[in-house]
Write a structure and sequence with these properties.
By secondary structure, the chain is of the alpha+beta class. 50% of the residues lie in helices and 10% in strands. A seven-stranded mixed beta sheet has the order 1-3-4-5-11-8-6, sandwiched between helices.
Length: 462
Amino acid sequence: MAEREVDDSQGRTARSVPLWKMLPGLLRDPLGQLVALADSAEGEILRLNLGTIRPYLVTEPAHVQHILRDNEANYTRGGQSMLWRPVRRFTGDGILSDGPKWRASRARMQPHFTAKRIDLLVDSMSRAISDAVDEFDEPARTGRWLDAGTELGRVVCRAISSVFFADRVSLADQLRIVAAQGTIVTALRARLLLPFVPDAVPVPGDRALRRAIGVVDDIMLPLVRAEIANPRDGDDLLAALARARDEDGRPLDERQVRDDVVASFATATETTYAVLTWLWPILDAHPEIAERLYAELDEVVGTDRVISRDQLSALTYTRSVVEELLRMYPAGWLLPRTALADDVIGGTRIRAGSLVVVSSYITQRLARFWDRPDTFDPERFRGDQSRRSHRYAYFPFGGGPHQCLGMYLFNLEAPLVVATVLSRYRFRLREPGMPPRQLAAALRPGRPVVMALTPLRERRPA
């Protein structure tokens, strides 16, 4: 499978997998090929010979922990990283960067994403989600087909807008942001696949990327400028950042506020609707799981329009379904890093300046850590079975100092969305079967998931 180079330096040299051995599988099913390589490596670090780049593929949970937590200072998101550089064309320097700017942004925003604060927002999020789901009534009555990704984006944006902007972004602008983010995720695909191409050299998708970023800025910059000019006393993220000061006590400039708000909003919304878009084909393919989910919703939610925090706590199977979705289809599936200095991981030497690839998608499908890894089974996350053999066998939100700030927000919001929709409607797909996986900045279905909804019954008012 692989050829080992000879090296007399400290640590053994990683086994090199030549391109000709990988190419057929990469062309047919790139993620499947990478999982197969990781399984066959049995915990070893591999070096993938992809021609102009030769990244290290790190999949063993203990090795992942070393990169993301134990020695994270040596593994930067800058340098030749094949994802972060193009992503920052959209999000700017801040929460998705490295170094002093990242630390300052993280410190500013951390208080807005604590478990205590997010718990206080459950009721307002639930009402916002309920109001957004109300708009399914008309297409459900008429049998109109809906794009699940687009509609979930609308629902999620409504909920997040209430938390981040105190509902100061109109519904029309929320929909424009959802559409722009979809374009950005897809447009970044070429940059992701061609990491060695300098930013100054145009690649397919660059023009669409610039237009989509312009749409977001047209919405967000006026909002930021107005907030800075007339700051409110609100505790939403926009108001707090507009009042914030940098480490020297100076007000943040409008670009920094914009970058922090856009990065937070983009990651909070993208993760939720990208992951939940996979739910519908999964439930269609597994009717026994769907029936168990429906039974829990009937028992806990019943005909209530707005789900309470007590009801949310009781939706244990619903949460297990969401966790299994995160295992099989993590939105942030790729976490590339650049090694600043030589290192040794599990006896294998990592050369300074090299690209190191960590992937939750791959590690979370390793057969030696997961029984029947390609089978959707929410029981993995129930009772004693939920304990993993290693903390980093499951890391859909990354880990260490860079672990996603919005993790707790997702863990409350996603079950609320699932429960609100499926306690009111049943669905049918226009095209049954699992969609292909689209390799882009976020893991999304490779074709639209189109569905029609059927109302369950008349709902009593909240």
